[in-house]
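It is worth pausing here to work through a concrete case rather than discussing structure prediction in the abstract. The textbook approach is simple: state the sequence, then state the predicted structure, then interpret. We follow exactly that order.
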Amino acid sequence: MRAFIGTVPFTIIEAINYVVSNEVQDADLYLVKVFADAEKVGKQIEETGVFQNVYIVEDVLLTYPITVKKCMNVVKNGKNIIRALEKKKYDYCYYNNSGWLINSIFYTGVLKNNPDVKNIFLEHGYISYIRRYDQRPWQVGMLVKMAGLKCMDGTMLDEIHMFEPELNCVEQNGKIIKMKKFDKNNIRLKEALNKSFHYDTENNEYKDKRVIIMEQGPLKVEFDKAAFWNPILEILDLKQVIIKAHPRQKNSDFNGRGIAISRNHTLPWEIETLNHNMNDKVQITIFSGACTSSKMLFGDEPTVIFLYKLLPVDYSFLGTELVQFADKVGELYQDRSKYFIPETLGEFKEYCQKIGIAKE
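Step two, the predicted structure:
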């Protein structure tokens, strides 16, 4: 038997893809309630039959700001998970979170009845490529030990599965395995993912829009967003544009501008990508990691325009490793001209005119 852990939607989507793509028949999913509607999603996953069992468990992710109450809840919920796991027999346990505490809770529980279990890590997005899992502040390890847990510090990992191992730039624990990409022609996979996240195939907001502006999540710097976006929008043919609002924003910064805005902004972007031919789309963003997922997860090559070099502030806050990683994704493109980072507004305008998304 195999145990998979699901927290944020990406980890659940990744687990479903792994099970279906590899025709795994003996998998359980432990879905941790860390997002709105997690319980509802868990019920819908059950109905797909991808997993033998779907266990919905209470939240054990410790998020900032850390409080005594949060710590007490994590310890209490963690003990319940450990008690449930110590009765189970598993040959493999699949981790796909970068947090030591949550992984240590599951590792401690699984290990009690399964001393020979194989521990496998499924990549957790770009962070797995640029940051070592086994390096954490000493306080994290101390917290794990104080909670009476076996510390999942990475040294016990047997394998790490990655969609693009050649992009990895840090030392990894365990053997690196290339993970199967999402196959849009796999009917079972598509139906399972669409059902799990209640995707309405009849309500396609992106079908008639060629340009998708991926709205940015919270940044570490402040700047006048209206002043930044106004000249960008002046260049674009707005009839071709739709805004993909960030899931953590209640209101889009583009409200009131006469531009189409996706209503279902909390739907995981991977589900939208699964249901579209992204090769014909243009994604524009300051620096959203979602713009790399089409190539990395699906092998699609949408046109991607990163705007971070046009910011009125120093973009070094993004981090050298992350910028270099995004550049490496662009190098995977067969047509590298579709991956563009303008350095001036003039370059942006010229490129938009070239690909037919500028105002006439």
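Step three, interpretation. The mean pLDDT is 91. The longest helix spans residues 68-85.
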